[in-house]
Design brief:
This protein is α/β, with parallel strands linked by helices and 579 residues long. The chain has 17 helices and 22 strands. Bound molecules: alpha-D-glucopyranose (GLC).
């Protein structure tokens, strides 16, 4: 199948989106709250994003994925939506959004909206109405009576023993109607009932409204949770725990693929060549292949969690840490490459607004190796087959914030976990340590634009503390330095646009067992791309017999200047082209 280069258009119509254009595209995620603040209130906004469009064009990305900007009480920073068809005043207005769409399209960049439809805010008019047991909206959410024989509202009286992703039971008691409602995330994020065709119709109408406004696709929040197992039953808790994490057994419900295919048909997702990516905690390769097989007309690609779960204990939560081993990371990405090689398509990511910073997690963020490890992680990820996602600041090698005090955190998941863990008697230091390594706030500190006050992010007081290392790690310095992480990412994006082998080549992993080297080839017709990377802070020799003969190879990209021998310095990486 031929991949067309992405086209330049300001219209945002189906014609401006060639068939499978997203296969040679690179996506840039903006978390609006932390990107750029235009009005000095300390929170990023849409006019702030508009002021940075030339920066995105200079980097060369094809698509922006915008995290939620909709009206919201902000219990989960906008992933709790009370009006799907308006912009929260914190971020601006619909006019601002139209201006953003036009400004992006003028620069040949497409816009993908975050679609949060597993749940709404409890302040959404649908849920407000649904609280009344007699309302026609009652069945738009999951209302259930208390457990038989239990006293309503007391611990254990919940309809099932599911635990919410943000701690505490996944059911909340509503005294007014004597029933519980389901919320897999916070109690202000009630789950919509997708079994009800009226719910589905309302969502498809809303999606069409956005497509008509000019958006080019959707990133679908926890979309594999929309079909729940029927009936909802108890799970088996870990020893010493009363509840079982809901995400563990609510994913991949029986009607998931039916709903996705219906959505695709009804909204015209494939018909209009829109980009669709579904966030799917717990999805297996087999399921992902079915969902992304174009013949099934469901989604273009999914976000797996397997590789970002490698640093947690297998039976524990994300807070139960264990070190990441390179062979395990390579093996996992390789399995997804093989699993989706013939049908389906991969998304490629290390970073997003829910994950700690890649350079701190998989690289070495100390002063000696930060730049090269950020570049090398970018190289290995972007040279895989699939659509790469860059999260704001990843292109600068931004690091974790490593907060040491619970007062510094704003994220509901982190704050709730801290309270929950302390109430279970865990050591305060251990809890703070887990947070400093894994908290979502590591990714959410404000973007570093320059070395001025608050990193040039705001003229007010930033909503979350700025990482003090902005003085050296910032966009202005990176643009001025030809050897920066920024320019390395710019080159990676160019390679995907310029070489079909990067977008389409068959993937083959080399030296699978090496604890330092990440090496692979990509092959298309008579072209072979050879990628070798030292993913460690010690030098390493690449065994010559492990690679194709590089005698006549062209060096396309490298972290270091003298790339003559097979010795790789710490975090050195190279991309060669043969043929
Ligand atoms: C997704 C989002 C995350 C949010 C959650 C609930 O995982 O990426 O930020 O908290 O869904 O909407």
């Amino acid at each position: 199948m031929t991949v067309e280069p992405s086209s330049v258009s300001s219209s945002g119509t189906a014609e401006s989106r060639p068939h499978h254009w997203w296969k040679s595209a690179v996506v840039y995620q903006i978390y609006p709250r932390s990107f750029a603040d235009s009005n000095g209130d300390g929170t990023g906004d849409i006019p702030g994003i508009i002021s940075k469009l030339d920066y995105l064009a200079q980097l060369g990305v094809d698509v922006v994925w915008l995290s939620p900007i909709y009206t919201s009480p902000m219990d989960d920073n906008g992933y709790d939506i009370s009006n799907y068809q308006d912009v929260d005043p914190l971020f601006g207005s619909l006019d601002d959004l139209d201006e953003l769409i036009a400004g992006l399209h003028e620069r040949g960049i497409k816009l993908v909206m975050d679609l949060v439809v597993n749940h709404t805010s409890d302040e959404h008019p649908w849920f407000v109405e649904s609280r009344n047991p007699k309302s026609p909206k009652r069945n738009w959410y999951w209302w259930r009576p208390p457990r038989k024989g239990a006293t309503p509202g007391t611990p254990g009286a919940e309809p099932t023993n599911m635990e919410a992703a943000f701690s505490g039971p996944a059911w909340d008691y509503d005294e007014q109607s004597g029933e519980y409602y389901l919320h897999i995330f916070s109690r202000k994020q009630p789950d919509l009932n997708w079994e009800n065709p009226k719910v589905r119709r309302a969502i498809y109408d809303m999606m069409r409204w956005w497509v008509d406004r000019g958006v080019d696709g959707f990133r679908m929040d926890v979309i594999n949770l929309i079909s729940k197992p029927d009936p909802l039953t108890d799970g088996r808790p870990e020893p010493g725990r009363q509840y079982v994490r809901a995400v563990k057994f609510v994913g991949q419900g029986p009607r998931l693929q039916e709903f996705l295919a219906e959505m695709n048909r009804e909204v015209g997702l494939d018909a209009q060549n829109l980009l669709t990516v579904g966030e799917m905690p717990g999805v297996t390769i087999e399921m992902a292949r079915e969902i992304t097989d174009p013949a099934n007309a469901e989604l273009n690609m999914v976000f797996t969690f397997e590789h970002v779960d490698l640093d947690r204990m297998p039976e524990g939560s994300k807070w139960d840490l264990r070190p990441i081993e390179l062979p395990a990371l390579k093996k996992n990405l390789n399995e997804w490459q093989i699993g989706l090689a013939d049908a389906g398509w991969n998304s490629l990511y290390f970073d997003n607004h829910d994950q700690p910073r890649a350079v701190s997690r998989f690289g070495d963020d100390g002063p000696e190796h930060r730049v090269n490890s950020a570049k090398t992680l970018g190289t290995v990820l972007h040279m895989h087959k699939g659509t790469p996602y860059i999260y704001q600041g990843e292109e600068l090698g931004m690091t974790n914030s490593y907060f040491s005090n619970i007062e510094q955190y704003a994220d509901i998941e982190s704050v709730n976990y801290h309270a929950d863990a302390l109430s279970l008697g865990m050591e305060a230091d251990a809890v703070l340590h887990s947070l400093s390594v894994k908290s979502r706030d590591n990714a959410r500190t404000p973007m570093h634009w320059d070395d001025g006050s608050h990193a040039g992010f705001t003229e007010g007081i930033p909503w979350l503390p700025v990482n003090p290392n902005y003085v050296t790690i910032n966009a202005r310095a990176a643009i001025a330095d030809a050897n920066s992480v920024f320019h390395h990412f710019r080159r990676l994006i160019e390679l995907r646009h310029d070489y079909r082998v990067v977008a389409e080549g068959r993937f083959e992993l080399l030296l699978a067992g090496s604890e330092q080297i990440w090496a692979f080839t990509r092959t298309l017709d008579n072209q072979v791309l050879v990628v070798m990377a030292n993913c460690s802070s010690a030098p390493v020799d690449v065994p010559a017999d492990a690679l194709p003969d590089l005698g006549r190879a062209q060096l396309l990209l490298a972290t270091h200047r003298d790339a003559g021998s097979l010795r790789l310095l710490p975090w050195e990486s190279r991309v060669y082209l043969l043929g």
